[in-house]
Amino acid sequence: MTGAPTTALSEREPATRSQIFAWTLFDFANTAFYVIVLTVGYPLYFKQVVAEHGPRADFLWGAAFSASMLVVAVLSPILGATADYGTGKKRFLGIFTAICIAATAAMFTVEQSMVVAGMLLLIAANVGFEAGLVFYDSFLPEITTERSYGRVSGYGFAMGYVGSLVTLVVAFPLYAAGFVESNLFNVRLSFLIAAAFFLVFSAPLFLFLPDRLRTASLKLNFVKIGVERVLATFRDFSRYKNIGRFLVAYFCYIDGINTIIIFSSIFAMETLKFDLSEIVIFFGIVQTSGIVGSAVFGVLADKWGHKQTLTVTLLLWIGIVVVAYFVHTKSMFYVVGVLAGIALGSSQSTSRSLMSHITPLEKKTEFFGFYSFFGKASAIVGPLVFGLISSFVDQRTAILSVGFFLLAGLALVQRVEVPPVRR
Prior knowledge:
Layout: E1 5-7, H1 17-50, H2 57-87, H3 89-106, H4 115-137, H5 140-143, H6 149-175, H7 184-208, E2 213-215, H8 222-235, H9 241-270, H10 276-304, H11 306-326, H12 330-358, H13 364-392, H14 395-413
Antiparallel strand pairs: 1-2
């Protein structure tokens, strides 16, 4: 195989503070897409306007989202292995970020009955967003030392939660009048704003953060290289059993966490009778406390250890599930939102930093591809279980059932071996 990678900068040379800040700004930038396109604006616009609130609207939205996640799950390990060979993470991150931004901006043109176009743009945008995260996350082991994985990862997620709040503040006036015909232009305008937000605040990463590995020859079959490296990893996976144990644990507990987040607003509206404004307030509370959870637990992870901090976080999640089962008042559910935000910020940042700590440096992007794969694949099981139990029993029992995913993840995390921190 030709074109072996050459190193532009030392693999162990940490980035400057300004470069780390540029990296965290990408988390700040991409939350505009997450909030507007995946959480608040485009899902409702697609179902109520594009699909005209038809009986198949939910199915069409779910099908498009699932298709995008399937594409990312298949591509992630291959893309990560290719970047590890030395083709450059920043190049791939730039390509997928550009796809996401372009597709998000194009959503401005989607109007009533344009179902196929609306679905295709969602698939393209989410593939760009999720595939880009493989390369963004894999920068973490390069920009800091093992002693600071936790806090730097936490700073990134904290910036993301700040970005979510800023996006909500900017978008709220555009959504105030709802989806009446006279306000549809404002709703569509929010998609352009999300694209512009992502473009502007992601730019510092590409301008100021160096790409540590570059390939000597650009005349390479990158896909072939990526497939060969993934197959080689599978053949030699006995060397990486510890990473395998963590990925299985991650699959279990992140499935439970994602299911809680996905169905929290539905539970609030249908079981506790929240209205839309109260749900927005609840979402804002979760994002605000998520800032605290990401930053504080990120620092604690470097002091206590990533595994110990993740254990505490999962115990907190299990407590949240039990409390949510017994909640009957809106005020108490707001308290649950505070705790959930803290636990969410901590679990996300600590998982990323623990993955960075146990992964060999030469395979960091490839294994973050597997990390992404397990995270995306887990988005199928938990929601299905919740939906079935909710349909045949009730939502409270469905929430309690999610605790089994968290308990399984907690037990499996204890089997993960954490090497000593290299100083």
